[in-house]
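Exercise 7.
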Amino acid sequence: MRISRILLISAASFAAFATPAYAQSEDEEWEGAYIGGSFGLGAQNNDRNETVVFDTNRDGAFDNNVNTVLGANAFAPGFCGGASAGVAPTDGCRSDKDGYEYNIRAGYDVQSGNIVYGFLLEGGKSESRDSVTAFSSTPAAYTLTRELDYSVQARARLGYAARGALFYATGGAAYGKIENSFSTTNGVNAFTDNGNSNSWGYSYGGGAEVKIARNFSLGLEYLYTNFVDDDYVVSVGPGTAPATNPFLLASGGTDMRRSDSDFDMHNIRLTASFRF
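Solution. The predicted structure, written as tokens, is:
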């Protein structure tokens, strides 16, 4: 529902400026180089089923339960797809943040009749944030958070031009710098992590542009972007905890990470381009 509302608002906004623009310019020439930018929103998928997974024997498999000395699952209280508001699920979780994004782009198009094809390079920043929290029976909360610091994309475009408008599909490779962080209310164990991630992924979608002048166009674009973020691991050590601590029973420590390696989002953007 959230994404649907965003799409409807964006489509209405585009129609508001596209209708007069469409009437003002029927220039059908789209071939050549262009530079421009975009402003929009990165709306994340619903990750309510995401959890945290554990590797208590440190064999790299992340398929273990963290059990107490009595054999009970220490994380029986469960998980939430967001940042914890307290130490137990009943305290609630804050939803992930859908953030604004800002990008610059440059590309080149070739036109053959009504068919337009080309490529573009795009880079920018995003304010989207994605968290997941595990709750232990202590009680305590363990939150893993990732943010997309910046991304760079190289995409192909294929479209159809008619009466000053260009409708296109686009897709290609994406690279992202992901900032990872960890927080917990557990004050007895020691926690270390392996920092930020450099992640490769992909992006695809479509859009439309209309010319409001011979060399200037405005547009609306939708992309689905996915980054694979499976390198971030939090290692749990003794700290001041006793040897009976659930994290320490199997091998003297435990590694944890997110169950979902996909950091994906829906990008809805307003674009502007100047053509040479």
